[in-house]
């Protein structure tokens, strides 16, 4: 069956337009079609765990094929072997390889992927992309080799070519920043849906489109998985993609195969310095999204210094937004905050006024909502249409584990704040509506940015009445020293404060016990904020996945209170 006959709107002018856009000059040659494709390699690429929902073979066939000779020509790669070998999908992990794949054997932090190439070939991979080191190991691989000095650097473009550049068939929105990416993409998805578009979503919590909903492993998937998702979305008629673009993704070339129609920036604060080294390098990586190779235009929240700097240095046209004052193209006016969210008016450069309501509490969610709205404006949708969508509750979205209120007396809130900035803002949001004590339960992640641990402790001590320090994902680290670093920051902050404003600081582990005690011991007028893990359902302790969902633990404790 041909690609044409499988298009949902086969024969329509819209489908024809999509096909035309998807075939730029220099596109890969197609040969005959077979009913195989990666589908979105959704789920845990790299873990080897399959289930009916994430096995690529259960998802729509993508029906694209290309010869390795054509890929070598388009990407200027050295080819060793038969140029006529045909591939129809790309895979990074041998355990997920299926017949027709091109296996990308990348040098990694822990291993060289070439080690796994024979297994991938055994599973049906028809070609391998690798570097010179990998090629030296794979002289007898039995399949053609595409050799690049930096195979990761060509993987995004290669995966896009294999899938027929699916991102060109929809309007693409990419959101970056330290905090607020997930929330902003959920709001974009909601608003686009209300505008009559068929949106797809890719991010930390979930990848979903057209009724499919698959939990994510990474914020931004690796390029083969991402392109598989986008191709499956295009096939299903998705016409607008809202996705998160992490700094890891930019540094590791995961999104190289996409030029976004509109990119958005939320904010920047300390996180991921284990990977980026310094805040400046972290900023530089985020800023690289605002260049012509990656985006056509940008929208930047200029509430923080990083946003103001980015707006100046962006290499693509930028629209600015602020929730603080009026010094931006769009600003937030008449902001009224309540327990159930906020109402506000967005005022545009020509005096346009958009009345909006966001149901998630917190001033930061007004910033996220404003960013989402202006990104849609920047994509070319008329202000009148957006006003209509907003009037129909266009931003009535909830995000799992983001300021999720589980109970009201005591109020128990689960939030994903896992860096100092987000933790401070979450506490500040809850304080004015807490008649009793504000209790926070949180920890810091192992094997990640160690510098943020004492800072998080200090922020908690300044913002809460009771600080319960526990574990997050220790990964391979001993959790006790992680807690000690957080506690040290908390105690240091207390020492710097007036004595009568001293919070109680406790250390409770494991995490389930910390959540249980905090909820059981809270008075009805107290608020318990369980921060850091949001929607997550497994905790990585020494490489072992332990079932742990803050919402489940908190609900169990609430039920125990009721008994
Ligand atoms: C730091 C980082 O991002 N590392 C990524 C990197 O891993 P690596 O270099 O260590 O790979 P490796 O384990 O040495 O393996 C080398 C190669 O062999 C392959 N392999 C490996 C084992 C095997 O059995 N078979 C096999 O084929 C691997 O797929 C890989 O291509 O390449 C792997 C795939 O090639 C990624 O899965 C991996 O992401 C890991 C899982 C990760 O946790 N990344 C996090 C930090 C991340 O990307 N986070 C961001 C930001 C989130 C946020 O903002 O909070 C995100 O976008 O999610
Ligand atoms: N605009 C914002 N500014 C500051 N903090 C925010 C903002 N939006 C959300 N937060 C806080 O950050 C937490 C994470 O929000 P969200 O998941 O939307 O961000 P993210 O950028 O996707 O995070 P991650 O990259 O870790 O997945 C929320 O639970 C909330 O506490």
Can you walk me through this structure?
Helix content is 33%, strand content 21%. With 563 residues, the chain is α/β, with parallel strands linked by helices. It folds into 3 domains: 140 residues, Udp-n-acetylmuramoylalanyl-d-glutamate--2,6- Diaminopimelate Ligase, Chain: A, domain 1 (3-Layer(aba) Sandwich); 185 residues, Mur-like, catalytic domain (UDP-N-acetylmuramoyl-L-alanine:D-glutamate ligase, 3-Layer(aba) Sandwich); 159 residues, Protein-Tyrosine Phosphatase, Chain A (Alpha-Beta Complex). The strands form 5 sheets. The protein has an 11-stranded mixed β-sheet, with helices on both faces. The chain has a 6-stranded mixed β-sheet with strand order 19-20-24-21-22-23, sandwiched between helices. Strand 19 and strand 20 form a beta hairpin. Helix 6 runs parallel beside helix 8, helix 15 packs parallel to helix 16 and helix 18 packs parallel to helix 19. The relative contact order is 0.08. Adenosine-5'-triphosphate (ATP) binds next to helix 7, helix 13 and helix 15. InterPro entries: Folylpolyglutamate_synth_CS, Mur-like_cat_sf, Mur_ligase_C, Mur_ligase_C_dom_sf, Mur_ligase_cen, Mur_ligase_N, MurE/MurF_N, UDP-N-AcMur-Glu-dNH2Pim_ligase. Keywords: ATP-binding, Cell cycle, Cell division, Cell shape, Cell wall biogenesis/degradation, Cytoplasm, Ligase, Magnesium, Nucleotide-binding, Peptidoglycan synthesis.
